[in-house]
Write a structure and sequence with these properties.
heterodimer; A: alpha/beta; Rossmann fold; 10 strands; B: mainly alpha; 3 domains; 23 helices
Chain lengths: 232, 525
């Protein structure tokens, strides 16, 4: 589970996230929606421990800054950045060592196969295209065997097949009881994926919905209903 | 830690493999090693010739090293710019279950390697060149180097990861460190101001007792003196203070709690560092990491231009929005260099009897050897809109670089007028020098385009610059040869006009050739 309580983050005088609280239970997919500059990435970076913040963030009820929490937490940033002189395979090896991951060689092979990286596994980080970096980033996050995984705009730069694989992977993770949080502003990409949604605007959560509460309404309707935008 | 060591080990191996595959890199490494050996050999010979090869001589060297390390470490750590963070770390290391303190200490591994390398060199040189006993140099290496690294790590951890002291207090401490460093500098300046700069006062400076009393750095110097020259009351007390200081700082750093709050600044540093590397790779002269957000002036008025002329007017608009129009830090640097050059080289230039030719030589050197900075024109070639403009390639190259010619003219005036005035050069020559400088800069610019077009990224920016320099040297060398011949055989007054006309013709031809690059985005390589 992922729990955020009274999260507050400002950059100088600019308040980016204002008293945000939400909760994503085990085995559910949460989506964080909002226009550019709403504060989604700030929340994601705070959860990943990359920013100073006020408030509490809990991963499986453990404070996010503690090493025990980090051990079960996977993160796919919006813009992947590789170790320039490490091959794709070595990135996964690093993850196995850093997280003491129990993933086997066969599972790593399958993961690379699934995201079409098998023939690229000896390529160095600085030889990869943006899309390939994103695939490596996803594979590394999955190699952790996380209990909570965070995906920040994960579909950007991916080819259609990789998007399909990623969606399937996310569903499989949910079925295994993993908590998933996806931050995006591309509504159509997560239309058929979510269990609980949070809509952000100007650093605040302006509304949330559970899939069961949505009825016949699709994601677009719910989003524009909350943000007041006139989509159609 | 195992994971971090794995990254370092594999990165080193892969870089080495890549270097072996690239003969140019391998050649560069071998050249650097050879050059280092050559410098060491020169140093040893000089030390022996100057009778510097005693323990006292080594004390002078290690004192300079101690002062350098202290200033470099404290200044960079107090500014939080001493540890190199890379973007890959932001992605894969900061969110990982690795102690943030360990991440910090690991990230500065290059600094320790450098310290160990220099101390090892001192230890070997001490025993072989400076005639110090082996056991003393072994002790020097382990104690000196060990304490230096302990102190460096502890300072770094305290200044970066402290989450208990309020941010404002920590900022105050960092300012205090900088004030302390300024204080030491003033003390050194005061010493030389009072005693003058002679060989005797310089040597006496290293024996100056007050130097050993300065907290931390002075105590460090005292420890070196204790090890190399033997004990005195002063160096013994100061050495104990140094060891005590290192132990206290280490204990404080070890006990300090750190949740990784510094990752925020580290991630920002990684972004800035990546940006700096990108700019530097593009051939730009980068003077620092992490620039402040640039502010632009509001510009009133409109411009109307069609075709390639629009590129010039857009650049003009961009420059008008800049705080100092076409002038920048580089203008100030040029002016400063011109002022220094005017006085330092005055007698040498006037001795030749032809200071105008001397100035011409300086201008040729500046044009040929200085890479300079990127103007707005160089980004034009990366902009696909340039190639879509319905106009001829020659007009495109002319209007895309016209502003650079104006800038070169302004720089030429800034360099030539003060130098001409101080050296007593006739105004007619000064004017011709300015024009020749402007044309030479244009020549350089067009040859740069041709070099880029010919070799692309195959040889990198350095390779492109080398090829550009070679081409320019051949072309201009020919012109200079003709001008000198005419000057010697017919009339010396013809040298300047011939050079100007020759450079103009050659530059126009080179410009026409470079215009091909403005026809299509595709390069030859």
């Amino acid at each position: 589970m992922l729990e955020i309580r009274n999260l507050r983050k400002s950059y100088g005088r600019n308040l980016a996230v204002d008293e945000v609280s939400f909760f994503v239970p085990d085995g559910q997919i949460g989506i964080l929606l909002g226009p550019n500059g709403a504060g989604k990435s700030t929340i994601i970076k705070s959860i990943a421990g990359l920013l100073r913040y006020q408030g509490q963030i809990g991963i499986q009820e453990i404070p996010a800054r503690q090493l025990e929490a980090k051990r079960i937490f996977g993160y796919v940033p919006e813009i992947p950045a590789m170790f320039e002189a490490l091959t794709v395979r070595e990135h996964i090896e690093y993850i196995r060592k850093a997280y003491a991951s129990s993933i086997t060689d066969e599972e790593v092979e399958a993961l690379l196969e699934r995201f079409e990286l098998k023939d690229k596994q000896d390529k160095l980080g600085n030889e990869l295209s943006k899309g390939m970096m994103q695939k490596v980033s996803i594979c590394c996050a999955l190699a952790i065997r996380p209990k909570v995984i965070l995906l920040d705009e994960p579909m950007v730069g991916l080819d259609p097949r990789a998007i399909k694989e990623l969606k399937e992977t996310v569903r499989e993770l949910r079925d295994q009881g993993v908590t998933v949080l996806i931050s995006t502003h591309m509504l159509e990409m997560v239309e058929d994926l979510w269990d609980v949604m949070f809509v952000m605007e100007k650093g605040k959560i302006i509304g949330s919905y559970r899939k069961s509460e949505a009825g016949e309404k699709d994601l677009d309707d719910l989003f524009f209903e909350m943000t007041g935008g006139d989509e159609k | 830690m195992k994971a971090l060591l794995y990254v370092t080990k594999r990165s080193l191996m892969n870089n080495l493999k890549r270097a072996v595959r690239k003969p140019a890199t391998l050649f560069l490494i071998l050249f650097c090693i050879g050059y280092a050996i050559f410098l060491i050999q020169i140093g040893i010979t000089a030390a022996r010739k100057l009778r510097f090869d005693s323990a006292k001589g080594l004390v002078v060297l290690v004192t300079i090293w101690a002062l350098y390390v202290f200033f470099a470490d404290f200044l960079s750590y107090a500014s939080k710019k001493g540890v190199l963070f890379k973007k890959g770390q932001t992605h894969f290391v900061f969110p990982a279950p690795i102690s943030p303190k360990l991440v910090l200490v690991y990230s500065a591994w290059m600094n320790y390697i450098f310290s160990v390398g220099v101390n090892l060199l001192f230890a070997i040189a001490g025993a072989t060149v400076f005639g110090v006993a082996w056991w003393k140099m072994v002790l020097f290496f382990f104690l000196g180097c060990g304490l230096e690294i302990v102190l460096e790590c502890s300072t770094m951890v305290i200044l970066y990861t402290n989450e208990q002291i309020p941010a404002k207090v920590l900022k105050g401490i960092c300012i205090g460190i900088k004030v302390f460093l300024i204080g030491i500098t003033l003390l050194i300046v005061y010493y030389f101001w009072k005693n003058g700069i002679t060989l005797e006062t310089v040597f006496a400076f290293f024996d100056w007792k007050i130097l050993q009393i300065i907290p931390v750095v002075g105590w460090n110097i005292a420890l070196y003196r204790l090890l190399l020259l033997g004990p005195t009351m002063l160096n013994a007390i100061c050495s104990v203070l140094y060891i005590g200081c290192a132990v206290i700082l280490f204990a404080a750093a070890f006990r300090m709690k750190c949740g990784g709050g510094y990752y925020e600044e580290a991630a920002k540093f990684a972004d800035d560092y990546a940006e700096m590397r990108k700019r530097s790779k593009n051939g730009e002269m980068v003077m620092g990491i992490g620039k402040k957000k640039r502010k632009f002036r509001k510009v009133e008025g409109e411009f109307s231009a069609h075709g390639a002329r629009a590129v010039f007017y857009r650049q003009l608009l961009e420059y008008k929005k800049e705080k100092y129009f076409i002038f920048s830090k580089m203008t100030l640097t040029s002016l400063f260099l011109a002022a220094i050059m005017s006085f330092v080289m005055r007698s040498a230039a006037q001795k030749t009897g032809h200071p105008e030719l001397f100035l011409l030589g300086v201008l040729a050197y500046v044009t040929l050897c200085m890479t300079g900075y990127l103007g707005k024109w160089e980004t034009e070639l990366k902009n696909p809109y340039l190639f879509l403009i319905p106009d001829s390639p020659f007009k495109k190259i002319w209007y895309a670089t016209l502003m650079e010619h104006v800038k070169a003219l302004a720089d030429g005036i800034l360099i030539c007028v003060p130098v001409g005035f101080v050296w007593g050069i006739r105004p007619v020559y000064v004017v011709q020098c300015i024009l020749i400088y402007t044309v030479l800069q244009a020549n350089k610019l067009y040859l740069k385009v041709i070099a880029q077009w010919m070799v692309g990224e195959l040889l990198g920016k350095t390779g492109q610059e080398l090829i550009r320099g070679l081409m320019q040297m051949v072309i201009l060398g020919l012109g200079a040869g003709i001008a000198v011949l005419v000057g010697l055989l017919i009339d010396p007054d013809l040298v300047f006009p011939i050079l100007l006309i020759y450079s103009l013709i050659v530059t126009t031809l080179v410009g026409l050739l470079a215009a091909i690059r403005f026809d299509s985005m595709e390069q030859m390589v």
